[in-house]
Structures are given as structure tokens and as C-alpha cells.
Amino acid sequence: MKVVWHCADRVGAEMAGPGIRVVELARRLAARHEVTLVAAGATSLSGEPFCTAEYAPATLREVTREADALVTQGFGFPLATALRLRGRLVLDLYDPVQLEQLAQFGPSPTASQRLSLGYVRARLRALLARADHVLCASPTQRAFWLGWLGAVGRLGPAALAEDPDARKLLAVVPFGLPEAPPQPGDGPLRRAFSIPASAPVALFWGGLWDWMDPALAVKAVAALRDQGRELHLVFLGGARPGGDTMRAAATEAREAVRALGLEDRVHFLDRWVPYAERGALLLEADLAVTAHRPSLEAELAFRTRLLDCLWARLPVACTRGDTLALDAEREGWGAAADAGDAQGLARAMLALLDPASRERARAAAGQASERYRWSRSAETVLRLLDAPPPPRPALLEPGEFAGESPFAVAGAFAAKAFRRIVRRG
Q1: Residue 242, pLDDT above cutoff 80
Q2: Model pTM?
Q3: Of the candidates 90, 94, 59, 110, the residue with the CA atom closest to the CA atom of residue 324
Q4: CATH for 257
């Protein structure tokens, strides 16, 4: 099977979550299929088992012309390319972009931002009406996207007769972890910021997106300082590969550092960490920290960088609200606080600084990591591609009418209207 995998994000040595997901899954699909990755930076990848092409609209049209399947996150290319596709369309919606937009834009969006929200909603409706398979990252996300699929007519009688639980149409494919363990480095964090060997290090692991709350972590460090506890907090403050327009949360965190006098304890690594180097940073830290603001984004999020913490067996202090935070607290590989609760986050961090508690959390992280392997996620995608595609209604035909004669539908409508007229008599 010829599979084209498109990514709107940049791929290469430095990648954010969407690029990482595409590269890792494409590697594993290439063991059984002919895979071409189309993305900005794709040709910089060397030694990969798949073919690569730099993204351009004409390039994507050309490589999909004879493709058996196109896998895409749905954005960053002309919509007509997907709607005219002869092969299967596999829509990877693990990252609910419209909820990120709502969290980023806030309660008073500009006219341009409102236009963007409307465009994303309309494009998603069109893609979901056309998709042969949809991928998501968690059961919570699956419930969310089932609502969308029902709204665009994809859960009609004909579709559910072939796929009663809609598992072929909508599959849970979590973000994953490499099979090989992380490799230690030469102490890049302590060396970069002159952190004493005896001082514990907390790593705010993940981007400083505007729906996150890095300033809360700064306030938690201040609370620990006031209790006489030494802790150094390191943020990854580098610009996102491919462009970064979200700086409000990062600015707020830097302002909190200055206001609380924490310049000697809170540090910003002002570069994006290459994908191959992340293991060394994780292994050097004593715990990871992540915090978000209350939002729908948080409820539906699958915080992919928390999986890196499982990979490195690094305990996590986090705010409640998303799927992995719930798992961390329930399974013991992390400690949680309510969103906005700086004192609660400080208590969570303090609990994980206890050596015995940290070792228990590390053991729990090692056990939990077995659920999240890229090989397992790839197998789900491979099963979908190996099976016949589920029924797909015509774009302008609601799923309830799929397979039914237009004359029969018109007759049923007329009979229903006549009975209503008689009742009103």
C-alpha cells in the first residue's frame, strides 16, 4: 500500500509534538507499507525507512494522485486535495486545534481570530464528512469526536451495521514512547545555569503555550523558598520550530520571576531542545512540572510531553484536568494540584522531593510507560489500513439516508408531512 503522511508542522532535528508523532508512526508503518512523508524539513531527515518530500501544494497533489491512503492532521494544505482523494483519508485529530484556539484567543477575540475559529470549524466538518478513519489520543477525545461525527451524519444505520461501535471509523491511537531507553548526557542543565550538584532541579517540560500556566510554577517555587526549601526550576523557553506566535504565558512567567526575586532559582533555556537530546535533560532532573489554566483545552488535552517523563521515569508535579494528570495521580507516578493553586502545586513538588516518595513514583512511571509504545500505536493504524474501509456517505448525503432510494426518502417525507397536516386539521 502506498501511504502519504502529511504534516503541517516542521520536522527534522527540532520538532514539536505533531512532527514527532508523524515521524515515529511513519517509521513503523514503513516496515509494511511504502510511506512518503510530506512536510517542511522532511528532506533533512536521513537514514529513515520512508521517502520524503518538502511540502508544497503541487507536491502533495502529485504524491497523493496514486496513493492508497493519505494520513493528515487536516490543516496546512488545500482542502480540495483531501476531498478529491481517490484513496483513503485518515484524519489524525489527536490535537484538538480549535480548543487550543479558544484558549489562546480568550473571551474577546479579534475579528480575524473569529474568522479563524469559523474556518477551523467549517474545515473540520468537511474533513470529518469525508474521512475513512479518524484517529484520536484518548477515550475522552473519542467521546468528543464521536459528537462531531454524529453531527456531520457519519453515525447512520448503514455505517453502524458494518461497524457497530464505530471503532474502525474512530480509533484511539495514543502518542507513544520509543522502545529504547533515554541516554544520559554530561549535565547540560546544571552546567548551563551553574546549579549546585546538591540542589534539586525541577524541569517544566513542554512548550510555554498561552493555555499553559508557567507563572503558577514560579509561584510554587516562591512558596517553597519561603519554607526554606531549595529548588531550581528550568523552563524550556525556545521558539517553536516553524514559528512561534504565543508569548503571553512565557512573558507572564518571566515577569513573575522578577517580581518574586527568583532570578537565582528559576532559569530559562532559550533554545528548542533537539528531539534526540531530550533524554539527557529528563535524566538530569529530579522531577518534572507542568501547569495549565482551566479550559476545555485542558479537559481534552493529551499532554504528550508527560509521556517523555514516563519514558525517563521522572516523577511529575502537575495540575489536574487532563487525562494524563488523572493517570499520574491515580497510578502514583505524579502528584497533582488544582489549576491555579500555587500552594497546592508547591505541596505536590515537595512530596516528590522526598527520596522514598520519588523512588515509588519512578517505579510507577516505569510500569505505566509500558502502555505507551509507538509500536503499539502503529499497530492500531496498521489494522485500520489492512481492513476494508468503513462505508463513506456522499459528501452531500446525510448518513441516515445512505443506501436508501431518494424516491423512498421523498415518499416517507411526504407521508410524514401529510399526517402532520391531518393532525392539525
Answers
A1: no
A2: 0.91
A3: 94
A4: 3.40.50.2000
